[in-house]
Automatic annotation (TrEMBL):
An annotated Gene Ontology molecular function: sterol binding
Family annotation (PANTHER family): OXYSTEROL-BINDING PROTEIN-RELATED, OXYSTEROL-BINDING PROTEIN-RELATED PROTEIN 9
Listed SUPFAM superfamilies: Oxysterol-binding protein-like (SSF144000)
UniProt xrefs under InterPro entries: OSBP_sf (IPR037239), Oxysterol-bd (IPR000648)
Superkingdom of this protein's organism: Eukaryota
Protein name: OSBL9 protein
One Pfam family cited in the UniProt record for this chain: Oxysterol_BP
Transmembrane spans: none
Gene that this polypeptide is encoded by: Osbpl9
GO cellular component: cytosol; Golgi apparatus; membrane
Length: 164
């Protein structure tokens, strides 16, 4: 089973007046089919894969990120590698590798190695979302409310109809 989607976004850091343009990885719905004496379907999972970028026109800093998909045999899920570049530099000053939903390690051009981030230790921050009645017609939760409702009550046919 296979599907994917791709997006581009902008993140603004108000405290620094910086705007970051970023691309997102593809999202894949995966399920392995193994055929031996019997047919076996594994537990499905969502996987990210592909190349992404982040750049700031104000500072000139940019990053190239690769989300690695799990190979058919062996390998790990959720692997990521990245390189961060200073303005006008062709060589990265930092390389990152690890798991995007776990621990990522940084290796700096100075030779220093460090934990870049441990997502398991990050606090969960509650989203702030405007009430549905305060949202415009094409804001995400307003636009998809019927699909979401029907999925919650497990009415797939109604969810599919609402999606169209």
């Amino acid at each position: 089973i296979y599907f994917y989607f791709s997006l581009t976004g902008c993140v603004t850091c108000l405290d620094h007046d910086e705007h970051y343009i970023l691309t997102f990885p593809n999202g894949y719905g995966r399920q392995l089919y193994i055929s031996n004496c019997r047919s076996i379907l594994t537990v499905p999972w969502i996987e990210l894969g592909g190349e992404c970028s982040i750049s700031c026109s104000k500072t000139g800093y940019n990053a190239s990120i690769v989300f690695h998909t799990k190979p058919f045999y062996g390998g790990k899920k959720h692997r990521i590698t990245a390189e961060i570049f200073s303005p006008n530099d062709k060589k990265p000053f930092c390389s990152i590798e690890g798991e995007w939903n776990g621990v990522m390690y940084a290796k700096y051009s100075t030779g220093e190695n460090a934990v870049f981030i441990d997502t398991k230790k990050m606090p969960t921050i509650k989203k702030k979302v405007r009430k549905l009645e305060d949202q415009d017609d094409f804001e995400s939760r307003c636009l998809w409310k019927d699909v979401t409702y029907n999925l919650k009550i497990r009415d797939i046919d109604a969810a599919t109809a609402a999606k169209h």
